[in-house]
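Running this now, will post back.
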Amino acid sequence: MSERFTKAAARNIFYGGSIFFFVVFVALTAHTHYFIRTSSTDETTLTDSVRRGKHVWEQNACINCHTLLGEGAYFAPELGNVWVRYGGREDPNSAREALIAWMRSQPSGVEGRRQMPDFHLNDRDVNDLIDFLEFTSRIKTQGWPPHTSG
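Update: finished.
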């Protein structure tokens, strides 16, 4: 038996390892897509108002200050579970009214606090944005964020 590492052995290890890790990558990708399709999101609740709310979220660059399910800036609160924090599961109407009132009161003008700008959203945009936030609160995030407070 030769004690040398030959070019053929190096080539076989490279190709074998590449194929092995490519197969693992494809399997993990397929598993992720299966999980997202079957367990993570309920697509039946994806309405036109939710789509418009996501557009409002993107158009006003809310992610530049807020996080949504852990993605975004950490300047302002996490909004992936804001519907839960405002009691949307127990009393959806009161939660909606409270979120509308909170958004309408911005900027609050309180000294020493960070201020959210007034984006001059109309009633439809505000309700669509709340529908989007309600939708995101129903996504199964495997325990993220770890605290309800965000």
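The radius of gyration is 23 Å. More later if anyone needs it.
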